[in-house]
Amino acid sequence: xxxxxxxxxxxxxxxxxxxxxxxxxxxxxxxxxxxxxxxxxxxxxxxxxxxxxxxxxxxxxxxxxxxxxxxxxxxxxxxxxxxxxxxxxxxxxxxxxxxxxxxxxxxxxxxxxxxxxxxxxxxxxxxxxxxxxxxxxxxxxxxxxxxxxxxxxxxxxxxxxxxxxxxxxxxxxxxxxxxxxxxxxxxxxxxxxxxxxxxxxxxxxxxxxxxxxxxxxxxxxxxxxxxxxxxxxxxxxxxxxxxxxxxxxxxxxxxxxxxxxxxxxxxxxxxxxxxxxxxxxxxxxxxxxxxxxxxxxxxxxxxxxxxxxxxxxxxxxxxxxxxxxxxxxxxxxxxxxxxxxxxxxxxxxxxxxxxxxxxxxxxxxxxxxxxxxxxxxxxxxxxxxxxxxxxxxxxxxxxxxxxxxxxxxxxxxxxxxxxxxxxxx
Length: 425
Prior knowledge:
By secondary structure, this protein is an alpha/beta fold. The protein has seven helices and 16 strands.
């Protein structure tokens, strides 16, 4: 699990944007799942016909001329924005609340850019940033005046996450906490030209271990956590949207829960984030294959069909070009040409968070993705996407007129296991 809560005033360590799905195999996936199409005009088998989902629009501004790129940047640590000259190049940018002074220049560079403020939903921290702003919706001092907001065990001890010390989980089901969180975040959004908020730690289960393995009396199990998070989103999401802002939670789902969770909760929000889109971990871990890859792809298709923005995030080394291509290509298989973004986050400090390989543009999608002999492909107006999510190498014939991103004309492509290629027309 990779969690980023940001830079605190006197704390040297920084945390990474968070809460992904727990590791687990999709081996129990129902046999015979359809392998026909995953694009914006096709259905996804058991997930059914798309409903008429209409996420709330952000505050109006003059329509920009630049076409959507389906790309974005997440920059939450000390120098991430300074290390990324192309920080405004995509459609979305997630950054810390104290970076608000950058917004005018960012939007001057790209009027289409949607700038989201990072805020944690389920925890608080003791120290604010030097600006007085918190990466959480409620600060520790404010929460201490309402001790019932803290999760506590039967002996009255406040819980603290042991995977991220210094983070104290909150009772997100408490109505007064929900109101305070919404009040604080809306005030910050309205003070500057933000487009919305990235809501971290919208947990579907108790995914964070606690110091001394303490269990709270307020949210004692996974079922209670699911109900609490839904209650929080049901209050906060519509309130943000009614005020004209995007509400984009980072949600914890797995292969067997994503469909029901997104079906239950999408009514409250403007879109979703999902981390570890094509692999676990922060470095060169093995990329997903077969059913573990497919449920992520189908989740992206579900969102794309409903024009519900999905910010799909993968972490790895800045030199892991194979994962960059696999991440971008998997995203492009289902992109609707309008909403959402793929976001690649390098693990190294001082690295640019914008890589040409992770943000290759091929124009607009043409038709749905198709699978043949294990390889998925999809045509774009200026290129072709090929993804091999299997554990065997595959050789694919390529129509005339395509070349590699370096300009070499190509007629056949060998795709190793868990690899992808992006070709230009």
